[in-house]
Write a structure and sequence with these properties.
alpha/beta; 26 strands; 16 helices; Rossmann fold; 7-stranded parallel β-sheet; single chain; globular; 27% helix
């Protein structure tokens, strides 16, 4: 017989109500930016500081606070004696980390950026501050500050080492530009902290290796999202706690706190990689310019040819110019019969290959990026409207949009079956150049197959823009093919990009090396490369832009909205202008609709009236957020205008 044993009777103890904490004796009220994810709630909220947390509650510390019915992370931005709110205040629950991750200066910068680019302060903050990794904080507490040995380096111009600098450095021709930049960073760090913003991860890796080679490893922090979370947070704390003097990062690192008299270096300031694609879509160069408004921050922008924005600042004297013009052997000729390299270019390549490697600049990757009918020269198109292309010499014509293949392609105009490749990519160039100089190896650098360096031996090196490998001592010749394709894009940035690309490639030639351009000899880029001075071209374009009222002389704003609402939003903005809620200088273009039912509305306004327009758009976004409508996608001064 199974006997059931009764359970012992237990009594529940009554739960005592939690003891309410006491507020801090001094400055008991904290103003906190709360990461609540709601656009219209992007404002500081006041909380009481418990006495037991008072000693650790500094500006820039991350805390956990009650918000609505949950808990949110927040950032302390100030402490005061009295609250401005009449409602009873809640207490801060806990400190997430005792380490400040922002300063008064950077918090003010977050606000400036959110206003300048019509976004939220919290969105800026998310880009600026790396996620916490609790395990590394003990390592940072015990880390020691170590000073590298600084050696004199005559390759760094003395103007770059002044105590106070705010300039654009027009880069000279240099077969080893990474070593020069690494030397500059090291020399500036002997004065104070240096924050170097590099254009892409490839350059960051190269500059980091250059610093390690010159002074040994362990002397710089790396601040980019490609790192593991713990490594990124560790490096961020080591730098912001003053235990390292050098930080290398990509665009998001531009908000990193700095001590007084520090230097910000933005490498290749015209690069599209410096533009943040997420709201509020700032760009690192312009954020650096905001920070340089403080006299205690030094600024060095670098590039072979200044962007138009920087060119305007040079013209008005806000930025100084450091430039070292020189004379180079530049030859240009135009193909007469559609040949890849005209005879002048052939002789230069043959002569240069006897001395060392030759570098070719190729306009694009791929094989045949567009095909024409060999008989009537009409463009080959798919039924969907996409351009036909070829992935290799044996591949069938394929649509670049829907990927449909054409086994028996015929021209829709004349019925011709022969194909002519109109837009050759680097893989097709490699075939043609390799057959023209069959006794030499061909090396390609493009896409996912980027080479950092090549051997200094006679060979043919082909690269697309930004993928050029370095070679010790420089190339014996640099060949810029199909130059007209670089300047022929339907983009307001086309000439700016082409100038930077041409100078960047040409800079890798030896001092005695030749530069050959396959284009009209009368094109002004030929003379600019010969004198190594692009500023004449920049000033000419600036004059044209000013006459036409184009960037950088007006603030341009692009609104990306739902196609169903585009006309209504356009009418609303127009009405606000007629009611004088927006400046009369504002120009509004009617919406254009895309195939995906998206509407684009363009606004332009003089700089002095820009804050009024961005403030209006911020308020408009808040109202849409309150009404639970889809937010606008706002681009203030976008990289591209279409």
């Amino acid at each position: 017989m199974h006997v059931v044993t009764p359970r012992p009777l237990t009594l529940k103890s009554p739960t005592a109500p939690g003891t309410k904490p006491l507020p801090a004796h001094e400055f008991p009220v904290a103003s906190i930016l709360v990461d609540n994810g709601v656009f219209h709630l992007d404002e500081p909220y006041e909380y009481l500081i418990p006495e037991h947390l008072s000693d650790l509650m500094q500006v820039g510390v991350r805390v956990s606070v009650p918000f609505n019915r949950g808990k949110c992370e927040g950032l302390v931005i100030s402490r005061t004696d009295f609250a401005t709110s009449v409602a009873p205040l809640k207490f801060i629950e806990k400190i997430i980390s005792p380490y400040p991750v922002a300063t008064i200066e950077t918090i003010e910068l977050f606000k400036q950026v959110s206003q300048r680019w019509a976004g939220t302060t919290i969105d800026v903050l998310r880009s600026a501050i790396p996620p916490r990794s609790a395990g590394v904080e003990r390592e940072v507490a015990s880390a020691q500050f170590s000073v590298p040995k600084f050696t004199e380096d005559e390759s760094v111009a003395k103007e770059l080492l002044n105590d106070e600098v705010r300039l654009f450095w027009a880069l000279p021709p240099d077969p080893d530009p990474i070593k020069t930049l690494a030397s500059l960073i090291i020399r500036r760090s002997s004065k104070s902290q240096v924050l170097a913003i590099l254009s892409d991860e490839k350059e960051l890796e190269e500059v980091g290796q250059g610093i390690d080679t010159l002074i040994g490893s362990g002397f710089y922090s790396r601040l980019d999202s490609a790192q593991e979370r713990s490594a990124r947070y560790r490096d961020y704390l080591l730098f912001t706690q003053g235990k390292r003097r050098i930080a290398l990062g990509l665009r998001g690192a531009i908000f990193t706190p700095l001590v007084k008299h520090s230097t910000i270096i933005v490498s290749h300031e015209s690069s599209a990689h410096l533009y943040e694609p997420r709201a509020p879509r700032w760009n690192a160069r312009d954020v650096a310019l905001l920070r340089a408004g403080d006299a205690s921050i030094n600024l060095i922008l670098t590039g072979f040819s200044p962007s138009l924005e920087v060119g305007r600042l040079l013209d008005v004297g806000w930025l100084n110019l450091l430039q070292a013009p020189s004379v180079h052997h530049v030859v240009a000729s135009e193909p007469k019969y559609g040949e890849l390299i005209p005879s002048q270019g052939f002789s230069i390549v043959r002569s240069a290959l006897k001395k060392g490697p030759v570098l070719f600049l190729i306009p694009s990757k791929g094989y045949g990026n567009a095909i024409l009918c060999a008989r009537c020269r009409n463009l080959g198109l798919c039924q969907c409207g996409g351009r036909l292309m070829r992935k290799s010499s044996q591949a069938l014509p394929q649509c670049s949009l829907c990927a449909m293949e054409f086994a028996h392609w015929r021209c829709g105009t004349c019925g011709g079956e022969r194909i002519y490749l109109a837009s050759r990519g680097i893989e097709r160039f490699a075939e043609e150049i390799g057959s023209s100089f069959s006794n030499y190896p061909v090396v390609s650098s493009f896409g996912e197959h980027i080479l950092l360096s090549v051997e200094a031996k006679p060979q043919l090196v082909l690269a697309t823009p930004g993928a050029q490998p370095l070679v010790k001592g420089g190339y014996s010749a640099v060949i810029l093919l199909e130059g007209h394709r670089f300047f022929g894009h339907a983009s307001l940035r086309a000439d700016e990009r082409a100038r930077e690309q041409f100078f960047s490639f040409a800079s890798l030639a030896t001092s005695a090396g030749s530069i050959y351009i396959s284009m009209q000899p009368a094109h002004p880029i030929v003379a600019a490369l010969t004198r190594w001075n692009p500023l004449g071209l920049v000033r000419r374009e600036l004059i044209e832009r000013e006459e036409l009222g184009l960037p950088p002389y007006r603030r341009f704003i692009r609104l990306d909205v739902s196609g169903d609402e585009a006309q209504q939003i356009f009418d609303g903005i127009s009405h606000a202008k007629s009611d004088s809620r927006l400046p009369q200088s504002l120009e509004i273009r009617p919406p254009t609709l895309s195939a995906k039912n998206r509407g684009l509305i363009y606004l332009s306004v003089p700089f002095e009236d820009g804050p009024q327009v961005t403030s209006f758009l911020q308020e408009y976004q808040k109202r849409r957020s309150i009404s639970k409508k889809e937010l606008l996608i706002i681009h203030v001064d976008p990289y591209e205008l279409t």
